[in-house]
Amino acid sequence: MGSLQEHTVLVQKVCQIYDKISQLETLKPSKNVDTLFTQLVLTCIPPSSIVISDLPNNIQKIRSKLVRLCGEAEGHLEAHFSTLLATFPNPLDHLDVFPYYSNYLKLSRIEYNILDQHYPARTGPPKRVAFVGSGPLPLTSIVLASYHLKETTFHNYDVDPLANAMACRLVSTDPDLSQRMVFHTSDVLDVTDELKEYDVIFMAALVGMDVDEKVKVVQHLDKYMAPGSMLMLRSAHGARAFLYPVVDPKDLQGFEVLSVFHPVDDVINSVVIARKNPIASNIDHHHHDHGLEIGSIMPSSCKYCEFQMFNNPLKQMSMIEEMGIDE
């Protein structure tokens, strides 16, 4: 999986697709947009030993621009399907209309299992969870709240008030989730003491689009998170780093990195879990198929939507995030 020739062919193909994507007039969902991003994902998803940081500067620049284009396309894709779902009387009963919903089921199962392995059993399940960069279609929070953390309150943070309004509308008709989901319109860098209240904070893959931005967010979380609380981040490995920012465990200063997990199936994002205020270092790197079952899925549902108006932007949640191949 690692010859120089294979890496060269991969980079050439990614650059060709980037040229076509960068010339599009809009990244809103359409046949042409969907085709190009599907080609990109199919190119990047096979396991590869390529190390993005070793590539020449000109390729690094293209990769940075491509990650931002992926993020923009994701935002449009989420907004489109959030609007579509809102036309149903009970939107959460129809989440499978979203083409990558199955990927979210898989990724959320992985994240829950990893969290369950490291979260202190004596305290019971986390009571308050924050998701930073939740977007107009907060599928991770919805899936975790519906199937895995059924008594946990989820606080979703996004800088875009429209995204929060769309997300809130999806859960407002559900008697359970509407009571357990709160939406805050703010830049996480403006959130301070509230961060101490969360047992676990999830950070969407596109919060911090480059290393400097991501480190800035991590440093802020380190300053305000409660000692012993958990931070879960999404990263990318190998060629998948052409789609998403990479989280380097070395950049998680103030946290003990507990595990780094790299899926090799159609779930694109790697998962990093870390604990605030380290105790002992025991990093676990997995580069194999997760083999985690999804288990039985039953529809469930958020109701109380709080909007806190702050200023300035930061995020945009992942949604090509699972622009994996829909099976």
TrEMBL record:
<comment type="function">
    <text>Synthesizes nicotianamine, a polyamine which serves as a sensor for the physiological iron status within the plant, and/or might be involved in the transport of iron.</text>
</comment>
<dbReference type="InterPro" id="IPR004298">
    <property type="entry name" value="Nicotian_synth"/>
</dbReference>
<dbReference type="GO" id="GO:0030410">
    <property type="term" value="F:nicotianamine synthase activity"/>
</dbReference>
<keyword id="KW-0808">Transferase</keyword>
<dbReference type="Pfam" id="PF03059">
    <property type="entry name" value="NAS"/>
</dbReference>
<keyword id="KW-0949">S-adenosyl-L-methionine</keyword>
<dbReference type="InterPro" id="IPR029063">
    <property type="entry name" value="SAM-dependent_MTases_sf"/>
</dbReference>
<comment type="similarity">
    <text>Belongs to the nicotianamine synthase (NAS)-like family.</text>
</comment>
<dbReference type="GO" id="GO:0030418">
    <property type="term" value="P:nicotianamine biosynthetic process"/>
</dbReference>
<protein>
    <recommendedName>
        <fullName>Nicotianamine synthase</fullName>
        <ecNumber>2.5.1.43</ecNumber>
    </recommendedName>
</protein>
